[in-house]
Specification:
544 residues, 3 domains, Rossmann fold, elongated, 9-stranded mixed β-sheet, 15% strand, alpha/beta, 8-stranded parallel β-sheet
Length: 544
Amino acid sequence: MPLAWCPRLSLRAARLFLAPRRDLAISGPDEPLPVVRIPRTLQRRQEERQSGRRNSTRLVLVRPGRLLISARRPEFNQPARLTLACWESAPLASRGWKNRRSRWDHFSIERSQRETPALRNLSEGSFADLGLVPRVLCALQEVAPEVVRPTTVQSSTIPPLLRGRHILCAAETGSGKTLSYLLPLLQQLLGRPSPDPRSVPAPRGLVLVPSRELAEQVRTVAEPLGNSLGLQVRELGGGRGMSRIRLQLLKQPPADVLVATPGALWKALKRQLMSLEQLSFLVLDEVDTLLDESFLELVDYILEKSHIAERPDELKDPFNPKAQLVLVGATFPKGVSQLLSKVAISESLTTITSSKLHCVMPHVKQTFMRLKGAEKVAELIQILKQHDRADRTCSSGTILVFCNSSSTVNWLGYILDDHKIQHLRLQGQMPASMRTGIFQSFQKGYRDILLCTDIASRGLDSIHVDLVVNYDFPLTLQDYIHRAGRVGRVGSELPGTVISFVTHPWDVSLVQKIELAARRKRSLPGLGSSVREPFPPADVNVVP
């Protein structure tokens, strides 16, 4: 029966009956009824959880000085002097970033040292101590007088190359790998006969690179050295038809050293416009990209046409030339070692790796910002305008903005045009005539901002770049290493900063791997194990 129709129940008894707690004491009839805002059982559970959190020992990293990780939430800071072991749980600042409510959260990996690792622990030796002849040393001094002492990679690579060893050089970006193979290449060509100008073009040295921009850059470095030594350096790039390739190959005098892309070289070999019979030095620069699926078939064909020496003594026969093999790269993902086993003989291969290979660069500040996709444009424009104001007050460097697709580069370029922000664009779908010279114009300072895809992340020298913005977060960890490697290079006087916009859940997964590797001061997962010992019998030399 409803309470309103029960004459035996008084108003005080009805209040006691409706009360949610039996132990509730009511002093008078005018006492207000209690309001139940949360079920008692759920309230008890929350109290137990909170008491359990207070009693549990949680790792809270306070700020006692210089930091390795600085986060928006101070409890996720990590001091620079603290290194987490592999079995310790790390309080990641990006742990909850897959939740939408984490937007506008951010953290930074701070600089732990000032100079690039390639310049640390340098000995007092010079290039003359590495075995280079005076003629090559004079050419280097004439072309690049600022290069006085070799980097750690150059000190470890040049001597075995001069001894005729095949080399696998795996070192961080910006460590001076280009000169480490160019100087021995040019020296070994000095005492050998030049090709017959009346025969089919047959270069004695070949540098294979994945892009026209990188071919142009390597040729720019090698050509002055070659001219000083009396050697001809030519560039062979595709994208302009067979007539252009034919003209490049028929230039007189013939090329002693050819810097080529796989597509253009494959076309020239297929049409018998050139030969690799006289090849004595073969370099695969950015070998991880050249052995990717997009280039692997072309590179396999080129290697079949090259006569690679099995032993160092085969390189001494001038009448039956064999090629010395040099493999150079900054990242070596899993699976590359199996591909390399088809190329080189393990007994004659020397593997040189840097101790900082596949590690987060310690001399570059790297910031990660959790944003929604619609917020990235406004944040990018604000960053560019702040950099422009800083450039007016003091000398600062240029900016690289990376996108994952050519369409994003074009679309973002139109938005920057609307905001009167001057820039250049570089992406793979551009015609070859448009791409020519864009990166060189950016290097010379005609524009301070370059919108680009990953075509500009492989091997291109960018000592004037001060800021890299990942508008689209890279799809792989090796892409992140290459993009971040555009700042803080050898010869750069700018400290360098990387800012990454993190949008998608798969972006967060990569960020968490980067943050965990930085906190533990270890190499990034999935990359380091494939290069340390690609061939068990080979010589392995780890550069400090």
